[in-house]
């Protein structure tokens, strides 16, 4: 789902914990890409506390929470239109009548962490709620008062809306100001920012953020998903433990792509160490959607401790090979047919970082089958808009 007037605005998400403050690359957070759920892609502005509680319930009941999906993130439109008489942010009294403290307690009671959206300008992208520009310290204190900062909890913050009444202050200055305010509250903050890659945040956001958007908003289409994957690729050298490139949230399960296309979407996001933030209604997802989002083999690639972003390493028209190094000398590999017809794709060891004489076991992450003693290259045939994903383990 595209944001209204998205080209005009930047934003952020915050996750707070009780450890001592530090710069993003030193705060011990985000050592692997964040995993969770976000309200925007499916619900947009039509959110309320009943929906969020239902999502939190479903994250646990479906087993997603046990797989590492730990954040439940409120995107835009959760707050009242104006600040209260003391200048504080306030929850929308109609859609969140119990207040944010009660919601945080409920989500935390499920063993999950609550994320909240804010804005680096005077208003948010929707223009429905206030931004944090000029109120950074006060808003950080408000989040603490709501119980977002709890011992052993690391909640989440996303600061978006790049040019929303920004008073001509640079994005680096505005985002850094919010990050400092949150960390000065006495807790570490997982800080995810978005200005759609306009000012190349991969080159500067790592000093105070744990992830940064590199692309425009994803849409629920094959074309948008593949375009975001391509645009994110060039920033791979800037990603690693503590700070991740973000090509936007997952559209898996929202109905705009086929099962095979969704499988490719999830495979590539995992390979490139993108945040795995679910964007569908997990309380009513299909068995096929659950199977994709729950694939532990693929999730393990995303969460690999080495933290190397995979890249496009070979291309023949719309037939592509993407690969990346994993811990213990292994290689993650995706053969991706983006073309209109069935085709075979061959990955040569020389293109994916293996010695040409290396002998590997090839684990197909979607069928869970292992082919032993493969040497030199790997070939497979795929339907249009389909992929194969492997982990190659040298013998």
Write structural notes for this entry.
InterPro entries: Aldolase_TIM, GH, Glyco_hydro_27, Glyco_hydro_27/36_CS, Glyco_hydro_b, Melibiase_C. Pfam families: Melibiase_2, Melibiase_C. Keywords: Disulfide bond, Glycosidase, Hydrolase, Signal. The protein has 395 residues and is an alpha/beta fold. It has 2 domains: 6-302, Aldolase class I (TIM Barrel, Alpha-Beta Barrel); 311-394, Golgi alpha-mannosidase II (Immunoglobulin-like, Sandwich). The chain contains 9 helices and 18 strands. Strands 1, 5, 6, 7, 8 and 9 form a 6-stranded mixed sheet that branches. It has a 6-stranded antiparallel sheet with strand order 11-12-13-18-15-16, covered by helices on one side. Strand 15 and strand 16 form a beta hairpin. It is globular, with a radius of gyration of 21 Å. The chain starts with 9 loop residues before the first strand and ends with a strand. Residues 4-9, 16-25 and 149-153 have low confidence and may be disordered.
Quick structural summary:
This protein is an alpha/beta fold and 395 residues long. 23% of the residues lie in helices and 24% in strands.
């Amino acid at each position: 789902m595209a944001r209204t007037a998205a080209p005009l605005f930047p934003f952020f998400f915050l996750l707070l914990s009780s450890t001592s403050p530090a710069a993003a690359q030193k705060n011990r957070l985000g050592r692997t890409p964040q995993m969770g759920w976000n309200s925007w892609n499916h619900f947009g502005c039509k959110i309320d506390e009943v929906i969020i509680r239902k999502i939190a319930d479903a994250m646990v009941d479906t087993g997603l929470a046990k797989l590492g999906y730990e954040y439940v993130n409120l995107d835009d439109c959760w707050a009242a239109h104006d600040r209260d008489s003391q200048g504080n942010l306030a929850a929308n009294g109609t859609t969140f009548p119990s207040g944010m403290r009660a919601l945080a307690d409920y989500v935390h009671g499920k063993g999950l962490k609550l994320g909240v959206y804010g804005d680096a300008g005077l208003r948010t992208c929707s223009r429905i709620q206030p931004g944090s520009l000029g109120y950074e310290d006060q808003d950080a204190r408000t989040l603490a008062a709501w119980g977002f900062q709890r011992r052993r909890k690391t909640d989440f913050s996303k600061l978006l809306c790049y040019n929303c009444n920004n008073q001509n202050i640079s994005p680096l200055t505005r985002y850094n100001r919010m990050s400092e305010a949150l960390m000065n509250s006495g807790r570490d903050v997982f800080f995810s920012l978005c200005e759609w890659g306009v000012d190349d945040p991969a080159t500067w956001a790592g000093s105070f953020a744990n992830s940064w958007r590199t692309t425009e908003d994803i849409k629920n289409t094959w074309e948008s998903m593949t375009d975001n994957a391509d645009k994110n690729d060039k920033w791979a050298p800037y990603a690693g433990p503590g700070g991740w490139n973000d090509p936007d949230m997952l559209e898996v399960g929202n109905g705009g792509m086929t099962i095979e296309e969704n499988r490719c979407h999830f495979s590539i996001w995992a390979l490139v160490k993108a945040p795995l933030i679910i964007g569908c209604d997990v309380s009513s997802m299909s068995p096929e959607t659950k199977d994709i989002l729950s694939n532990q083999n693929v999730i393990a690639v995303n969460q690999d401790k080495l933290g190397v972003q995979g890249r496009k390493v070979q291309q023949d028209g719309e037939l592509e090979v993407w690969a990346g190094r994993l811990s213990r000398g292994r290689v993650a590999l995706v053969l991706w047919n983006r073309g209109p017809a069935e085709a075979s794709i061959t990955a040569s060891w020389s293109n994916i970082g293996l010695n040409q004489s290396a002998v590997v076991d090839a684990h197909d992450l979607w069928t869970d089958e292992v082919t032993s003693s493969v040497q030199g290259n790997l070939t497979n045939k795929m339907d249009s808009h389909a992929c194969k994903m492997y982990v190659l383990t040298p013998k």
